[in-house]
Amino acid sequence: MKTLDRIFHLTENNTTVRRELLGALTSFFSIAYIIFVTPGYMETAGMDYTGVLLVTCIASAAGCFISAAFNLPFMLSPGMGLNAFFTYTLVGACGYTWQQALAVVSLSGIFYLVISLTPLRDLMVSCIPPSMKNAITAGLGIFIALIGLLNSGIVEACDGRLLLGDIGAPATFLAVAGLLITGVLMAWKVKGAMLIGIVATTLLGFPLGVTEMPTSVSLSFASIRPMLLSPDFKGLLSLGVIPLVTSVVTFTMCLCFDTLGALISIAGAGDMLDEKGGLGKRSRGMTAVALTTAVSPWIGGPAIGVPVEGSTGVAVGARTGLYTAATGLLFLAAILLAPIAGIIPGAATSPALILIGMLMIGSASNIYWHNLEIALPCFLTMIMIPFTYSAADGIGVGFLSYVGIHLITGKWRKIPPITYILAGMFAVMYILSAF
Predict the structure, then answer these.
(1) 123, 420 in Cβ contact below 8 A?
(2) What is the C-alpha to C-alpha distance for residues 49 and 430, in angstroms, rounded to an integer?
(3) What are phi and psi of 161, to 5 degrees?
(4) How many other CB atoms are found less than 10 A from the CB of residue 389?
(5) Helix H or strand E segment including 413
(6) Residue 431: what pLDDT?
(7) pTM metric for this prediction
């Protein structure tokens, strides 16, 4: 115990080994659903489900260990908004292969690492007002919820319209039941409600004929082999320089703002902010995220961020890297779940997406709706992300409208120069795509 106290400064941070381990268990069960949801996203992009599940556990564990090395109480794992961006924007809308999309993620991690270690960090953070950051989070929440509704069959796309699906269909009925089960568990504040909901819905799927047992159950790391060293940097220019630059910059922005928001939220939950409301030395959480995201794609892993669910562990007293190191070990232990993960139907994970979207859209309450110069760009950002099925387009429209309305109203001096640069990049991208 004394050794752990000396390494992680437990006494100095007013915590104990018991609190740190309890925090690890609490946070892990709050985020464990991501182990099953992330492969579903990346499988849509053409990747192997089991392989992604394995590397998700490995990359999350690595991220937690890096966070622990900095003695930070920030658990790391894939972010839902980043997953959606990877599959539906980089691969779906932009047309990159999953190998090229992994290269974009790695480049974004490197770019973010530079930002986190230089004054560029403050410039990046200051280029968008807080309301726009909240609008991006809320827009991604709507996007994720829409994906969950479509994947479950609760909503169907027909002749260019979104219609209510066949609720009586077994898979759709199961998704509705899963949504109610998970929603009730969350209302009762049950720890690990989403994970329990996924398991319960999967079991309920057996009598409905939706869940099926796998023909063989085995743990094989062979599924990872095709993803090792798979980022395709050479093919990135196949779609042009402007789309590449825009994709990297936009992904980096999402990574930056998601991380910053989560760090402040979690530090606030643990009363760890400084007297100015800043992160102090805990801002190194950005560096931990950047390092992990830069390396994760090399094993076929997703972008790694700081999930807000980590606030649950901090809320019960976790304050140091012992907590994140223990969480990393739990992610490695979760690899043993890989052989049975294939039985989980999409109808069981869709409710989690819908409910995560509900939580994310809460950020809209922090938007200055009374100020039209802020409200309009934020509104356009929120609705264009799901309506265009592209986080990049939603953010691009938001940037352009924000700059445009300030130029027209003569308030252009209020906008940082870097914001004009980013808006100009989006404008060039749209102009070139029109020809």
Answers:
(1) no
(2) 34
(3) -125, 155
(4) 17
(5) none
(6) 75
(7) 0.75
